[in-house]
Amino acid sequence: MAFLSDNPSFEFTRPLFAAVLGNTALSMVPGISGAGSTPARTVFTPILDAELITKGAIHSMGYKPNTPTNCPTPAVITRSMTTLCGIDPVFINAGMYNRPTVPCLDVYGEPGADPRETDAVPKARALFAAGEGVGRHLSRCADLLVLAECVPGGTTTALCVLRALGYDARVSSSFVNNPVALKEEVCRAVQGRVDDAGITDPLDVVRIGGDPMMPVAAGIVSAFSGAVVLAGGTQMLAVDAILKGLGKEMAPLVTTAYVRADPSANFEAVAAAVGARAYYVDPGFDTIGDAGLARYCEGEVKEGMGAGGAMFLARLMGRTDEEIRSAILSTVLSFR
Ligand code: AAM
Fold first, then answer.
1. Who has the most CB within 10 Å: 22, 53, 70, 281?
2. Are 304 and 75 in contact (CB under 8 A)?
3. C-alpha to C-alpha distance for 283 and 297, rounded to whole angstroms
4. Domain edges within the chain
5. Please, what sign has the CA dihedral across residues 33, 36, 39, 45?
6. What family is this (predicted)?
């Protein structure tokens, strides 16, 4: 398999990697998210991932944002690429339970609520506008923006939003065994509320069943003046679907071959239905020399914190496949 599915052509002189961090109460529901060693700890994963990427180590808490079976967080991949390319990533706090440990732009959002109980993101419209403000701001700093996400439980909110927007979507998961029944249960509750209220506006769909990352990321894409690439799997598909529903220009997507190959999801089909261009990165973790990363090929983790987009950016910046693979391996070993 080729490292990149396709030969991208982006003209840029000032690249930027940014990640939108958020929480949803859903990640604490046992069995929904593997983006953290326990359900309670998943809410800290965006903070710990951002700390790892910024500082190269985690000192604020005594555990790692790895999966329950200790498969390494995709943030190690992102960290290795930002150091390899000399990029200072920017983090945007869309709404979390706890305060980040590294500098972030803040839109002063709230964590997403459980959509089975109440509106998930009551201020979705204000968060979209705040995201537009961030997008204009970042336009002064860069002409290419690789925009990532970190929202444990975010594939479930992505399912809710994609289905409510009319797509026959199946989303991916941080687990090898996608907890499809749990996700479908949440999705049915959201669909019922969307149908009862006769909602079609994408930001109203986010209000009912999304998470805070979605409107902020959509706002950033809609206001950024240069080229944007959305770095992520089925969660970023939801962002493009929101943009399309709003009549805005969509961004191309980049994710890993592991999301593309996930038989429990249908990333390619939904990307085609939405009409978004997609690139896939295959870093060949089966032969990279680390048992944890090799599990990505079995379907654990697969993607996250813009790992696919970070590798894609490194290629755009002229790094070779082997430079990329050896940087990832040494970062993962130093993080053990
Ligand atoms: C982000 N950090 C992660 C991680 N992600 N650390 C460990 N494993 C991951 N998979 P789910 O809906 O199953 O929780 O998957 C979405 C999460 O997984 C997101 O936070 C994404 O960035 C990734």
1. 22
2. yes
3. 10
4. 15-329
5. negative
6. Belongs to the UPF0284 family.
Mean pLDDT in residue range 167-186: 98
Q: pTM here?
A: 0.98
User: Sorting pLDDT into bands at 50, 70 and 90, what band is 69?
Assistant: very high
β-strand 105-106 against 253-256: which pairing, if any?
A: unpaired
Q: Is the C-beta atom of 24 inside 6 A of ligand 1?
A: no
Q: How many residues does the chain have?
A: 336
Structure tokens at 119: 């509106």
Measured in Å, residue 233 CA sits from the centre of ligand 1 at: 10
Distance of CA 38 to the CA centre of its chain: 20
Residue 308 token pair: 């696919």
Q: What is the 3-state secondary structure (H, E, C) of 243-282?
A: HHHCCCCCCCEEEEHHHHCCCCCCHHHHHHHHCCCEEEEC
Task: Ligand 1 pocket test: pick from 174, 175, 253 the residue with the most ligand atoms within 8 Å of its Cβ.
Answer: 174
